[in-house]
Write a sequence for this structure.
């Protein structure tokens, strides 16, 4: 009886995660971010062309944004730890299941 409750809870959590991902996909957030990057690139090209026409010294660092975002925080680190724990647990379970099946087939 307890195993069915755990299974139902896990299934509901997976459904909710799936729904959140679908909503994020349909909301167009990713496409919005890509269009912003494209806009910034077009503005950099226009600045470059203007500087060439004006005969200014051209340095590539003035036109390309090379900043690297660091997204590490407590929540992302926790997510990585949980993900690694789930991966290790699932791997151990699958090894046990396949070893059990192998033993049963070799009897």
């Amino acid at each position: 009886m307890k195993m069915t409750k755990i299974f139902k809870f896990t299934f509901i959590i997976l459904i909710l995660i799936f729904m959140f991902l679908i909503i994020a996909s349909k909301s167009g957030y990713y496409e919005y971010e890509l269009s912003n990057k494209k806009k910034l690139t077009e503005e950099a090209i226009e600045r470059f062309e203007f500087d060439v026409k004006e005969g200014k010294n051209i340095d590539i660092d003035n036109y390309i944004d090379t900043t690297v975002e660091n997204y590490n925080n407590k929540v992302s680190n926790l997510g990585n730890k949980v993900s690694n724990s789930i991966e290790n647990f699932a791997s151990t379970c699958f090894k046990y299941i396949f070893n059990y099946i192998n033993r049963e087939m070799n009897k």
Notes: The mean pLDDT is 82. The helical segments are 2-27, 29-54, 74-105.
